[in-house]
Amino acid sequence: MEIPSKFDSRLVESKWYSFWQKNEYFKSLPDDREPYTIVIPPPNVTGVLHMGHMLNNSLQDIIIRRARMRGYNACWVPGTDHASIATEAKVVAKLKAEGIDKSSLSREVFLEHAWEWTHEYGGVILEQLKKLGCSCDWDRTKFTLDPEMSESVLRVFIDLYNKGLIYRGFRMVNWDPEAQTTLSDEEVIYEEKSGNLYHIAYQVEGSEEQVIIATTRPETLLGDSAVCIHPEDDRYFHLKGKEIRVPLSGRKVPIIQDEYVDMEFGTGALKITPAHDFNDFEVGKRHNLEMINIFNADASINENGTKDFEGLDRFQARKKILETLKSLNLFVKEETITHTVPHGDRSNEVIEPWLMDQWYVDAQKMAIPAIQAVKDNRTKFVPKNWDKTYFDWMNNIQPWCVSRQLWWGHRIPAWFGPDKRIFVELNQKAAEKAAELHYGKKVVLKQDDDVLDTWFSSALWPFSTLGWPDETADLKKYYPTNVLVTGFDIIFFWVARMMMMGIHFMDGQVPFKEVYIHA
Residues 423-446: pLDDT tens digits? Predict the structure, then answer.
């Protein structure tokens, strides 16, 4: 036989990969051998492989092949994630190119388009993994929107709600005006940018005195509820208890005192806009201030922002407000500063703090056993220094906002009665039955329009892919998994949340014994 002068990878790789698959060398079934399990970090169904995927999956392939060669029952579970925000954005863009606006479609019709898109493009990345030679058990391939996977997500939501670990709350959220959905804190990217600090004169009521306020977002003055000074700032001590006029709207608001104010920043006097700033919201709660929302979902000015600016985009409104302030001699000066501006990690749009009802997970309670599991070395980070990143985030964890204003994803299993009472059930029929029992008659229910954060469903990945909530032979054999291989950038997005969910739903068992972190 003549040996070719050049190595042709296409012939060699396709030949041997087909041979491996035909002989089921990657297949795993429960038996008496010691298990060795890896679940693949599910790549977004929207994507194609990049260098990070190639590194990550090559490392897993090396580890699982070594385990297989050493005689372990090696199980490598592949799959993909539905990626709510990214996929919906792709589908919306495709429809727009065809002259179709999402708002003109019903939810059902839009989802038909989304499934068509997913079936057409969603399998690309799995085929690329095969081209890499990845020795996954392809019969185990999962998609986070598979029916059985979806049921596990709904059951988790219901369980946590019934235990008080999921609740509905009226709080400040990160709002993405482009994607028109809330984002969790981890989905917000903070970028240092050059900007302006605008100095504006506010008139003290019943006096010729003006107080100069410095702000980077002059458009939000339309929603001001107070002006705040530090209780120890003797420059403003004489103004305690007085009222002040908000420019343009003319609304009278109180001058309040709070130690939140930094006397060294700006002029030492702050405008307080509780509905559009996280810190102002807390000040507003302490002082029982009015919460005035001035934005529509697209970040244009709504009817609360006065007729002169209603309908304008926030940045158009900023320009017009500054022009108007100058014409009224209320604009003092502007200075150039470098400040941190929040952006959506998918849309790159400037995030707007917004006050609204959303669903939250009590992450602080769920984090306690997940922190302890790493302290006890039941789960080890490799290299070990990454446990510091894990602890830093987990010890300062905030309520996790899990609702998203999208159509693609797991719709929240909550129905509202005529008096807004909430019924959380597995399906419409069960919700109607619970409502009839409560009201003593049949009533019309409305299901929550929102879907769950994609990280909520992927947090169940180590046990939902093995058949949970059923007590399957796979779950008994292959859970907990041996090692998770992933990048440092999703320790808080995904690793921490899998720890919280795995320990909670698997009777205290951690989802993986080791977490191998790479770049």
Answer: 999 999 999 999 999 999 999 999
Find out whether the peptide bond into 469 is cis, omega within 30 degrees of 0: yes
pTM value? 0.88
**Cα–Cα dist 282/114, whole Å:** 39
Read off φ and ψ for residue 239, nearest 5 degrees. -95, 0
Residue 78: which residues within 8 A CB-CB, separation 6 or more?
A: 40, 126, 129, 134, 136, 137, 138, 140, 141, 142
Contact in structure between 117 and 102 (CB atoms under 8 Å): no
Burial of residue 356 (CB within 10 Å: 0-12, 13-18, 19+) is: middle
> Which residues, 6+ apart, have CB-to-CB distance to 279 below 8 Å?
260
* 390 sits in which H/E element: helix 386-395
Note every long-range contact of 311-316, with CB atoms under 8 Å and residues 24 or more positions apart, other chains counting.
314/177, 314/219, 314/352, 315/219
The residue count for the chain:
519
Q: What is the DSSP string of 247-293?
A: TTT--EEEEEE-TTS-TTSTTSEEEE-TTS-HHHHHHHHHHT-----
DSSP secondary structure, 321-364, as one string: HHHHHHHTT-EEEEEEEEEEEEEETTT-PBPEEEEEEEEEE-HH
Phi, psi of 447 (to 5 degrees): -75, 145
The one-character DSSP state at 239 is G
Residue range 361-412, pLDDT digits in tens: 999 999 999 999 999 999 999 999 999 999 999 999 999 999 999 999 999 9
For helices 496-505 and 386-395, give the axis angle rounded to 10 degrees.
70
- State the CB neighbour count (10 A cutoff) for residue 382: 14
Amino acid present at 227: V
Q: Strand locations in 19-88, DSSP E?
A: 35-39, 73-77, 79-80
286, 258 contact by CB (below 8 A): yes
Residue type, 94: K
What are the backbone angles phi and psi of residue 330, rounded to the nearest 5°? Answer: -105, -5
Alpha carbon of 354 to those of 170, 180, 187, 384: distances in Å?
10, 11, 15, 38
Residues 225 and 273 sit within 8 Å (Cβ to Cβ) = yes
Going by C-alpha positions, the residue among 79, 61, 72 that lies closest to residue 20 is 61
**Are residues 495 and 462 in contact, defined by beta-carbon separation less than 8 angstroms?**
no
Residue at token pair 């709350």: 169
Phi then psi dihedrals of residue 60, to 5 deg: -65, -40
